[in-house]
Amino acid sequence: MTDNQPFVVSRIDEGQILLQARFQDLGYLFFKRYVPADTCSGLLADLLAQTNGQVAFDRTSGLPVLHGRPFVESDPDWDDIYPRIQALESFHRFFHSEHTLELMRLVSGTEVFVYPMKMARISTPGKVGCETPPHQDAYSHHAGPTMAGIWVALHDISTPMGRVKVLPGSHKGGVRKVFSAAGVGGVQCEIYPQDTTWHVADSDAGDVLIFHSATVHKAEPNLTDTTVRMSVDTRFSDYGAPVFFTNLEPHHGWRIAGLNWERVYRDWKSKDYQYYWRDYPNLF
Ligand SMILES: O=C(O)CCC(=O)C(=O)O
Questions:
Q1: Which of 46, 50, 171, 241 is the 20 to 30 A CA-CA neighbour of 264?
Q2: Could you tell me how far CA 48 lies from the centroid of its own chain?
Q3: Which residues make beta-bridge pairs with 178?
Q4: How do 28-31 and 9-10 pair as beta strands?
Q5: Tens digits of per-residue pLDDT, 34-90?
Q6: DSSP label at 126?
Q7: In testing the pocket of ligand 1, which one of 95, 117, 121, 140 has its CB within 8 Å of the most ligand atoms?
Q8: Which CATH number fits domain 25-251: 1.10.760.10, 2.60.120.620, 3.40.50.12500, 3.40.190.10?
Q9: Atom of ligand 1 nearest to the CA of 162
């Protein structure tokens, strides 16, 4: 039986020692409204503008709504939309703001390296069974213990929209065996009989979830009729920690023809965050 408990909410003013201890204990930290709401709504508008109207902002609910066919990561509709999202300068810059870097440094206790690969999640209704299965990023990103995921809600997210949930403390047991599974990523990790209590919560726009590389996490299905859940995430590690080369590509660059950095950077106004990892000292 699965038991959902609410995320333990963290606050910056609790201080680094307590926050780092909680991170090492639970394997995650959840901060309410850390990213300003207007930053989130600006990025959400940029993302929606790339969907050819298939997902649009509904002014009444303040939420993204599906107008076309449902789709999931790697479907033809998603493959059409996603390269345009990946090409957004605002999307890539989002995780490099001083405000967000400060949070990563607080958790890491040192300078951090933000992974080049940035992910946007578009979870539409009508795709139950395709949601991200339980997994550990240490496996999927070939990363060590100082790597962490940072996930940001771009709008308010309620239970039926399909939230991201974590298995608290699961990072302490190391990297688990994996097997093929339905859903985004196509791989899931082993879940033990005692893994019954998950932590999860509804989010406000700008809520941030940071999770340890070995913390088991997964997405819930989107059970709404029309609402689309949209969020963004990336990975970071202590500056100097080994970073595996597959994280240096645009997300899905390995399977979508032409989705490479030349394409991504083509219309950017600034070169600031282009190829910034090339002098990173520990790529493998
Ligand atoms: O947002 C989602 O649907 C999945 C997020 C996730 O599993 C991840 O960031 O690794």
A1: 241
A2: 17
A3: 189
A4: parallel
A5: 999 999 999 999 999 999 999 999 999 999 999 999 999 999 999 999 999 999 999
A6: T
A7: 121
A8: 2.60.120.620
A9: 3
Residue 124 is which amino acid?
T
CA of 218 relative to ligand 1 center, distance in Å:
6
- Whose tokens are 């990297």? That residue is 175
Cα atoms found within 13 Å of the Cα of residue 151, Cβ hemisphere only: 24
Q: Please answer whether residues 123 and 71 qualify as being in contact, where contact means their C-beta atoms are separated by less than 8 angstroms.
A: no
Q: How far is the CA of 281 from the centre of ligand 1 (A)?
A: 28
Using a 10 angstrom Cβ sphere, with 0-12 exposed, 13-18 middle and 19 or more buried, the burial of residue 89 is middle
Residue ranges per domain, the chain? 25-251
| 233 C-alpha to ligand 1 centroid (Å) | 7
Chain segment 105-123, per-residue pLDDT in tens: 999 999 999 999 999 999 9
Residue type, 28: Y
